[in-house]
Each structure stands twice: as C-alpha cells, then as structure tokens.
Design a protein that fits this description.
With 256 residues, this protein is α+β, with helices and mostly antiparallel strands. It has ten helices and seven strands. Helices cover 36% and strands 16% of the residues. The longest helix has 18 residues, at 224-241.
Length: 256
C-alpha cells in the first residue's frame, strides 16, 4: 500500500466569516476526499464541522465544493487528483454556512413543501394502479434522487443571486413538478390544480435557460434537463399557446 502527503485548503469559519486553512494530510490507496477530511478531524482539526452519514453516495449529506466543483466528498476518489495538486474543499456556495463545511440547506425543504403531492385517482385503490412501462421508468429515474442538492447549488439562477430564491424552486423541485405533471395517474387537474401553470407562476420554470449544469453535477446521473426540465417547458408552452386550452380556460373562468 502506498501513501503520500497531500496539500489541502479547507474552508473554516461560520456565518460571521472565515477563510481557507492549509493542511498537509496523509493519503492512502483507495481513499476518497471524505476519508481525508476524517483524518484531518482525527489528527489536526478535531472541531472541523462536516456533515456525512452513509459514505456510500446514498444519503446525500456530504455535499461540498471540491476545487470549486459541487461534488459528494464520499464519492470523490483522491486518485482523480495529481499528488502535486492542492485540493480545495469549501462549503456549498448557494446556501448559508453554519460552520466550516456544513451549510443550512433549509431552502430546499421549503421548496419541497411548496410542491403539492401526488393526487390519487378516484375509484382506484393502491395496488390497482396500472401504468405503461415508459411512465414507470421516467418516475424511477427521477426517484433515484438522493437529495444531495448539488444541482441546486450549481444552478446559476440562485448560485450568486440570493434575490431569485423566493421565485425559483431549482432543478430538483422543478423535476418533481415535471414528474407529477407527466404522471399518468396524477389527478391534480381534476381538483383544479394546473401543475404546468404553477411550474411557471410559482416555481420559476421561466428562469431556467437549460444550461444543463445541474445535470452535469448530479451524482445519480439523472438527466434533469433533458428528461424533466425541457419536457416541462414544452408542456407549459403547449398549454399557454394551445387555442383549445386557452378557450377552455376562458369559458371556465366566465362560468365560475
Ligand atoms: S438547466 Fe436550468 S435548472 Fe439546470 S442549472 Fe441550468 S438554469 Fe439551472
Ligand atoms: S437531482 Fe441529482 S444533483 Fe439534484 S438533488 Fe437529486 S441526486 Fe442531487
Ligand atoms: S456520506 Fe452519504 S452521500 Fe456521502
């Protein structure tokens, strides 16, 4: 087993401010960035704050920025860096720092609560639901999400624009709206809920200019832009410019 000493710069601080601190840490074969952060805690910085749980890329807790790129620390192998490189680890930039590498990701839970959940179809009990395999596959792709919020962190709409946060749900939750809007058994429209309209009016779909940065950082490989955001945009536009939909909404408004 070979080992070497790597140079790290780790952000330390809290809501009042902070900066990068230099460390030299031992690295062994097969290790990931989270191993090194744990070694730092064990040997040099016992009060270094870091959030993690599974160390298997499944809980979504260990999100941080490594050399400026949003990544899971437990899934970033040290072997992707050269031994000479200085590796910078900083907290997610789009969310407020609590301490060191830990951020307050509450924004995402607020946005999650703003998306109305699946509306069960009337007259069908769970177990009687039948769907085409392609509809099942679509939902299953979106359901692979581990809520690491790397896509939320990287999206330029909120990354440096705190002012956009109230009006923009972010890719993870627009994907949830898309999933429900394309779900063949969702009965939201029968209750008067137009998910395409809420995507535009309440969740900020129009802010997304399909740069695909969210897709690029997703550790689950979910095609957020191609399979959720672009179809949702197409459906929202169809709704807006479909003359029958327009006429129907006029008649409904007049009769109510
Ligand atoms: S594709 Fe849309 S949601 Fe994804 S990063 Fe770009 S602007 Fe944000
Ligand atoms: S969609 Fe991907 S990047 Fe976004 S929160 Fe889910 S797993 Fe993370
Ligand atoms: S510790 Fe669970 S995803 Fe990294």
């Amino acid at each position: 087993m070979s080992s070497y000493e790597a140079r790290f710069k780790v952000w330390r601080g809290d809501v009042q401010g902070g900066g990068l601190e230099d460390f030299k840490v031992e690295v062994n074969d097969g290790e990931v960035v989270l191993d090194i952060i744990h070694r730092l805690q064990a040997t040099q910085a016992p009060d270094l704050a870091v959030r993690w749980n599974c160390k298997a890329g499944k809980c979504g807790s260990c999100s941080a920025e490594i050399n400026g790129r949003p990544r899971l620390m437990c899934m970033t192998r040290m072997s992707v860096f050269t031994r000479e490189e200085t590796i910078t680890v900083t907290p997610l930039r789009a969310f407020p720092v609590v301490r060191d590498l830990v951020t307050d990701v509450g924004f995402n839970y607020t946005k999650a609560r703003e998306v109305p959940s699946f509306v069960p179809p009337e007259g069908l009990a769970p177990g009687e639901y039948r769907m085409m395999q392609e509809d099942v596959d679509r939902s299953q792709e979106f359901r692979k999400c581990i809520e690491c919020f790397l896509c939320q962190d990287t999206c330029h709409v909120v990354r440096d624009h705190e002012e956009n946060k109230p009006a923009f749900a972010g890719p993870r939750f627009l994907m949830r709206v898309a999933e429900l809007d394309m779900h063949p058994l969702d009965a939201a429209s029968e209750t008067g809920l137009d998910r395409k309209k809420t995507a535009q009016d309440e969740h900020g779909l129009g802010y997304c200019n399909i740069t695909k940065c969210c897709t690029e950082v997703c550790p689950e490989g979910i095609k957020i832009t191609d399979n959720a955001l672009i179809p949702l945009k197409e459906r929202a536009v169809d709704r807006k410019y479909d003359p029958l939909v327009w006429l129907g909404s006029k008649i409904r408004r007049r009769s109510s």
